[in-house]
Amino acid sequence: MTLFDRIKTLANKQGKSINDIEREMGYSKNTLYRLKRTNPSSETLEKIADHFKCSTDYLLGRVETPENYYFSDASIGSIKKIYEGKDSNYLNLIEKLQQLDDDEIQALSNMAEVMISKKNKS
Questions:
Q1: Would you say 49 and 77 are in contact if contact means Cβ atoms under 8 Å apart?
Q2: How does pLDDT run across 32-76, given as a tens digit for each residue?
Q3: Any alpha helices (H) in 1-101, and if so which ranges?
Q4: Which long-range contacts (CB under 8 A, 24 or more apart) does 65-69 make?
Q5: Strands (E), 32-71
Q6: Which of 26, 31, 53, 54 lies at a CB distance of 3.0 to 4.6 Å from 66, suitable for a disulfide?
Q7: What domains are there in the chain, each with its CATH number?
Q8: Does the structure show a pLDDT above 80 at 25?
Q9: 10 Å Cβ neighbour count for 85?
């Protein structure tokens, strides 16, 4: 699936046309259609990913699911409230998670499962 195909799929999931997405993003008509034959700048790719709340890796075809596992500012605020008064290591970990890509988050999750399993065995 091409970059344009992925954008079209995401637009369809929202019940919108490519032209609707272009208007929402402030692009001129056919801007996204041009991605069928040109590569976007990193800034454009990030803007599209932000618009659809997906990862740039999904748009580039590096991962198959559009879900973005990053935390929104609202989520971070809620999590911080939960751990208010707890060790600052919790907050530091939460803030660092935002900087990881999907594969890194999965690897970290796998490591946590191994650590928990070892802890439960002892």
A1: no
A2: 999 999 999 999 999 999 999 888 888 998 888 777 655 566 667
A3: 3-13, 18-25, 42-52, 56-59, 73-82, 88-97
A4: 66/6, 66/10, 68/102, 69/102, 69/105
A5: none
A6: 54
A7: 3-59 (1.10.260.40), 73-121 (no CATH)
A8: yes
A9: 5
